[in-house]
Design brief:
This protein has five helices and seven strands; from the N terminus they run E-H-E-E-H-H-E-E-E-E-H-H.
């Protein structure tokens, strides 16, 4: 997750949200977004993950992301779920789930991305990478291990 975008949210914010959602879709990589809501509240951090990337992570992750206890301080966990009214931003519509804290982002009725908690996004990405590396066939695994042995250490570079 290399791309970081700070978005100052105000009303109306259609153009700002449309720009961020369009960028994430065009890049095809997870985009970290910080929402600074007007007023005294804390900024809300989320990772906008393109739908295809999320589907791949969830396919490879061996288990579901563990849910946290209410005492951990996550805004999505400690507050009562807000009504599931969709929010429209240009061609994009956001559907916040009542449970789990995820928000689906659709365009013309098709899910193009999801907003996830940064911890969940990192967890899914790591699990997917670990599982993918564990599915190498024996010849590929041996070749990869041989490749790693031949690499110069960081000190030698």
């Amino acid at each position: 997750m290399d791309i970081q975008i700070d978005l100052v949210v105000s009303y109306p914010m259609d153009d700002e949200m449309e720009t961020v959602l369009g960028l994430a879709e065009a890049v095809g990589e997870p985009v970290t977004v910080t929402f600074r809501w007007e007023g005294p509240g804390e900024p809300e951090h989320a990772v906008l993950v393109p739908a295809a990337t999320l589907a791949l992570w969830e396919h490879r992750a061996p288990t579901a992301y563990p849910t946290s206890d209410a005492g951990e301080g996550s805004r999505a966990v400690t507050e009562a779920p807000e009504p599931a009214h969709p929010a429209v931003f240009g061609p994009f519509t956001l559907f916040r789930r009542r449970s789990g804290g995820r928000t689906a982002v659709t365009r013309e009725g098709v899910v193009v991305a999801e907003l996830l908690d940064p911890g969940e996004a990192q967890w899914l990405q790591e699990r997917a990478r670990e599982v993918r590396q564990g599915f190498m066939d024996p010849k590929q695994k041996a070749a990869f291990e041989d490749f790693l042995v031949r690499q110069a250490s960081l000190d030698e570079r």
